Amino acid sequence: MPLSTQPPGSGEPFLLAASLDNARHLSSLLRAVHFQDHATCFATANGLRVTVEDAKCIQANAFIQAEIFQEFSVQEESVTFRINLSVLLDCLTIFGTSSLPGASTALRMCYRGYGYPLTLFLEEGGVVTVCKINTQEPDELLDFDFCSTNVVNKIILQSEGLREAFAELDMTSEVLQITMSPDKPYFRLSTFGNAGSAHLDYPRDSDLMEAFHCNRTQTNRYKISLLKPSTKALALSCKVSIRTDAQGFLSLQYMIRNEDGQICFVEYYCCPDEDITEAEL
Amino acid sequence: ASTLCVRLSAPPRQLSLRTVNSSRSAFASFLFAPLFFQLYEAGGASPDRELFRCKVHMKSFLGVFRSLPSLEKTVWKCLILLKARASRLVVQLHCKYGVTKTHNLAFHECERLQAVFDTRRCASTLCAPARVLAEAVIHFPPTLAEVTLGAGPGGKISLRNYVEDETEPSKTMVTELWLAEDEFQTVAVAPGSHITFCLKEFRGLLTFAEASNLPVTIHYDVPGRPVVFTLDDAVLEVHLVLATLSDLESGSQPPPANGVSHLPVPSDDFADDLESYMIAMETSAYEEGSGVPPSPTFPLRTPRPAESDPEEEEEEEGAVPGTPPHKKFRSLFFGSVLMPGGPGPAPTQEVLAEDSDGEY
């Protein structure tokens, strides 16, 4: 497919140029963080990071490393822009969303720089679509400052065990309460809805538990409406790591294996809910 | 139905789950003997008392058992605890991988809920494997409201969709099927008898009966009297009581010019209810132009507070629970309260149902 790196009639290479044989490798990950219309794209030689935030409380990041792409070149140290994620996803899936084996959309992405649109060339079955999506000033992003030294409690679970639980969360509850402890109940998800309270307990010796490192009993509450979108990432993932720091900030990291068996990551960070009321047990 | 009444009693030692729909035209009860469970511990108290009774929101309770297929695959044990002091009904599901799901459902006080019915007073009885009945009802469209079961010639039993008289014959589809006597385990029916009831609730029962592989016994009497469906097992007894459509002698005939067809003598059974209905009639809008008070399906029920069910206690055996929301059912008692010479509904008021009690 003759999609050249150079823009016609110009000697300058694109600031960001990337090619992907199967656009689904990108679109499925972006869907996992698509809970707001806008996202900030951040590209370095290592790959692409797409960030979505809401209410200054929650941040989701989708990482697609350079190795996933057939071609990935960044002319400066980093390239950042804000873009309408809903539109980007609509374009990436312009040939439809069904995943028939053999039929995949090829993608070429080009960005000239500040003020220029993000240009997408999408091809499937000989049909080419060109999309130009306007870019904006990148937003100031939250820094949750979550490094391993701050982590108080950490567990790694097989996603299979959490998927149903998250999909069936009692949405009449305003909060999702997460308890992590070296003692019983070890790992507990609680909701307090109209029907009453519900608790989901995972013992430390469960087959689902890949790693259990809890040092201190912590109970934190998070706004359930903010965390609910993470269900999409959970559905795609095979493993999830759940970490909390001393302030009760939550980090959820999802390991996602794509159609070709390559590993990508999506992470969610969430602030604890400040309106603390007595937990109903 | 919106609420589930949970009751622990002794004697007999049993757990019962009961519910009634808002129009009081359908009542269901599931009685579990202790042996149904792996463990049954009902606390202390004297042996001849009802131990406990409460009601929970049906939606909340059903929410615990969402997604039956996945439940079957992942849950190996279900524990139900009554925490009276905390006002919580605890349902705990023990799932695979050691996962435990605990639901603490708030419960409320509840009045006794018991429909009074006596299957021995029913003239007709049928018993068939659930599969036979399930395979029969599958032929009716899912949206069909009522179905008529009838005893036909040669011992055959018919099932026909109920079509309102007003519907144009050329625009309706009638589905009728006949079951041979040998498909049933028991056939003891009054010849020529028939009964019309709501299909939706019946389907619900059949789903359960098929899954538990239990035969369904149908007890019915004359149209207008409730039909009782029973599932019986050593450790489980299920009853579904549905109101039935009463017979309409004539279709929609305009009443005679004086607006009153005739005044039957109300039977003793309904004396109290009749009085409250008359009060409702008098106090409601009897202004010019207004004919019938805006009654729900069964006007006698309106004055009573929603949560108590004194009508259940007061009713004699075999009394009709409220009838389904249907214009024909609603008119059941209009004829019986029309007083000669007194104010009455407008002369054009159709009497859609003759009194059904005068005949019997």
TrEMBL record, chain A:
Biological-process GO terms, alphabetical: DNA damage checkpoint signaling; DNA repair
Chief location of this protein within or outside the cell: nucleus
Gene Ontology CC terms: checkpoint clamp complex
Pfam families: Rad1 (PF02144)
Key word Transcription present: no
Compartments reported by the entry: Nucleus
Family statement drawn from the similarity comment of this UniProt entry: Belongs to the rad1 family.
Free-text function comment from the UniProt entry: Component of the 9-1-1 cell-cycle checkpoint response complex that plays a major role in DNA repair. The 9-1-1 complex is recruited to DNA lesion upon damage by the RAD17-replication factor C (RFC) clamp loader complex. Acts then as a sliding clamp platform on DNA for several proteins involved in long-patch base excision repair (LP-BER).
Oligomeric and partner information: Component of the toroidal 9-1-1 (RAD9-RAD1-HUS1) complex, composed of RAD9A, RAD1 and HUS1. The 9-1-1 complex associates with LIG1, POLB, FEN1, RAD17, HDAC1, RPA1 and RPA2. The 9-1-1 complex associates with the RAD17-RFC complex. RAD1 interacts with POLB, FEN1, HUS1, HUS1B, RAD9A and RAD9B. Interacts with DNAJC7. Interacts with RHNO1; interaction is direct.
Protein name from the UniProt record: Cell cycle checkpoint protein RAD1
The organism's taxonomic lineage, starting at the top: Eukaryota, Metazoa, Chordata, Craniata, Vertebrata
Record gene name: Rad1
From TrEMBL, chain B:
Subcellular location: Nucleus
A single GO BP: mitotic intra-S DNA damage checkpoint signaling
Gene Ontology CC terms: checkpoint clamp complex
EC supergroup of this enzyme: hydrolase
EC nos: 3.1.11.2
Catalytic activity: Exonucleolytic cleavage in the 3'- to 5'-direction to yield nucleoside 5'-phosphates
Pfam families: Rad9 (PF04139)
Gene3D superfamilies: 3.70.10.10
Compositional bias of kind Acidic residues: 308-318
Top-rank lineage group of the source organism: Eukaryota
InterPro entries referenced in this protein's UniProt entry, alphabetically: DNA_clamp_sf, Rad9, Rad9/Ddc1
Region of interest: Disordered: 248-267, 285-360
SUPFAM superfamilies (alphabetical): DNA clamp
Keywords tagged on the record: DNA damage, Exonuclease, Hydrolase, Nuclease, Nucleus, Phosphoprotein
Main localization of the protein described in the UniProt heading: nucleus
GO molecular function, one term: double-stranded DNA 3'-5' DNA exonuclease activity
Family, similarity comment: Belongs to the rad9 family.
Biological role: Component of the 9-1-1 cell-cycle checkpoint response complex that plays a major role in DNA repair. The 9-1-1 complex is recruited to DNA lesion upon damage by the RAD17-replication factor C (RFC) clamp loader complex. Acts then as a sliding clamp platform on DNA for several proteins involved in long-patch base excision repair (LP-BER).
Protein name per the record: Cell cycle checkpoint control protein RAD9A
